[in-house]
Task: structure prediction
Amino acid sequence: MSRIKVVWTGEGTYPYVTGGVSTWADILMHELKNIDFVLIPIQMHPYVKLKFDIPPNVTDIINTPLWGTEEPIEYIRQIAFAKIYESKLKTSENDSLDVLNSIMILILDHIYRKKEDLDAVGDALYEFYEYFHIYDYYETFRNEKLWHIYKKYILQHYKDENDDIPTVFDMIEGLRYLYRFFISMLPTLPDAHIYHSSAAAFCGLPCIIAKKKFGSKFLLTEHGVYIREQYLAASRAQMPYRTKEFLMGLITLVSKLNFHFADIVSPVCNYNARWETKWGVDEAKIDTIYNGIDVNKFRKFEVKKEQNRPTVVMVARIDPLKDIQTYIKTAELVSKEMPDVLFKLYGPVNEKKYFKECEALVAKLGIEGNFTFAGLTSSPESAYNEGDVVMLTSISEAFPFVVLEAMACECVVISSDVGGTKEVLEGYGYVIKPKDYQEFADKVMYILKNPDIASDMGADARQRVLNGFTIEDMVDNYAKTYKDMYNEVLQERAISARGR
Result:
């Protein structure tokens, strides 16, 4: 049997960014040594550094930066300038945009929900991919004719709106979104048995094209519910309404395409599966595979604690989705009753503006002596073991690694009720309504005042992780899924070959 070849795609994660999705991907690459992987990481810009050691079974990395480039093909395909120049000449000589016109209109019809024919959009994306392996992407999007095709459609769509038609800025932003996000379809895709996307996002578009081009199987793993998180982000974003309307229409279309074309949708918890069925995914192709952790690394051990103070720990990036401000407000309530308590936050700054707001809140509440921004840690297992309690205050999660890791360290975990957290934590820790800092504080104080109860709960929590949430459990499930999909591909290709 030949080795299984998998193309893994991600967006803003492995191998250039740390976090839960990257941890998951790194485990797969290292543990599935008998599988060859090609990575297509979609990045914000090309100026990134590896954050992980890449194992030898990762045979290629096709970097795909969306921003920070004037000539995207130069970074993505790594071809000689002569080839780029040749495609530019072809583009300048090709006065007709008939093919691109029909693709553009079909995509706009779906962004504005005038049509619902995802199979046709899939065919159009494949046509888009092939078109830009002949003609130059940058020069085409600069073509005045393409702008007029797009502008005419937008103005026609809003012709009956009297007051709130899109501005020139709205229209430019919309076309810019198409240009930037569709760069994700520019890599020259390798033939592979399986394409595996880590989100129902733009990183899934190459998987759809490979399914069309090679007959590859498409496996979709949903960590967070991408479409839900994008709606949450849009609600906070300061942008004009018509720009936001276009962007969310585009993101909704892309998520629907992922769900429609995926052969297997593999959420990391049953909570995600409920969202996926809501978005039209056939239950028959949903197969939940829970995350797993290294229980030898994440275990209880002694660490030096700061002045032996009662300590609460949270490991999370500083980002509005993690709701750090609820963690800070919890610290204030607990410190009133337990003045020597220490709340520590380990994690990188993801949004500087939000970080400044969090620092200001700590100062406003006067808890500088009870709260520490401890920065990024290279040893989360040590961080958990510093804590008498581990908290997670997120307003959106899928199936967070930090909950599993802390439970494996025999910590009492108090988490907001988000994503699939309840599926592992309920009965072995505490699950709290998001943003309810009074309830968080009550549970923290109860555990800090009852160390014997905390010890028993911690031991039970570790046992819970050992029964179904280890690396071995996760890797075995993915290995089986890959093998089943591989066998289907071989069978289909054999039938196709006989039919020729």
Summary: The chain has a mean pLDDT of 94.
